[in-house]
Amino acid sequence: MRNLAPKTRTRFKTSTEYKKLKQEQDLFRRRIRFVALLTSKLKENDVDAILVGGQAIDLYTGGTFATSDIDLLVTNKTVTEKLLNKFGFGKEGGVWFNRDLNIVIQVITTPYSGDLSRLKKVRVKDFELRVAAPEDLIIGRLYSSKVLNSNPQLDLEQAVTLLNLFAESIDNAYLDEQAKKNDVEDILTEARRCALKIRNR
Fold this sequence. Notes:
Shape: elongated
Mean pLDDT: 91
Order of helices and strands: HHHEHEHEEEEEHHHH
Largest sheet: 5 strands, mixed
Number of domains: 2
Radius of gyration: 18 Å
Strand content: 15-25%
Number of helices: 9
Oligomer: single chain
């Protein structure tokens, strides 16, 4: 583990922000509050950040699906990792973690695969958090279920949940376009069928 800035880390641990994070007993809320604080600080350093993956799904579903880490897509890895180090995180095994806060972060630098204009902006206390579009998360989960096959049942369940949650606002034309692009049209049809069955219960 790297420990590059002990004095700065100490300052953060005595800061108001850190005390508020420690006081938050709900782990889901603590993680969301931290990532909102982090992205705000990144923005001050001209770094764009987007919450993607499982934590984004967890945010939309109000903590329904527990996830072990936060996937954060950033435009500058170096600045992000320096800031994480200042916030008391250490790097091990490719991820950044803070045992004291029980927060694990995966820093991702690949470009956002969807339409940036569709990102959602979520207010978290005094901060604004940019979150992957529901349509892009659905396609990501369907792709993971069909191609990566790591946990296909959970991936499909999350996609179905998002389809139902955003049933009134989802852009089906965009969803179909992305499904074709990622070769998941068949599993999208299955997910829609499952979602409709749940809504009609």
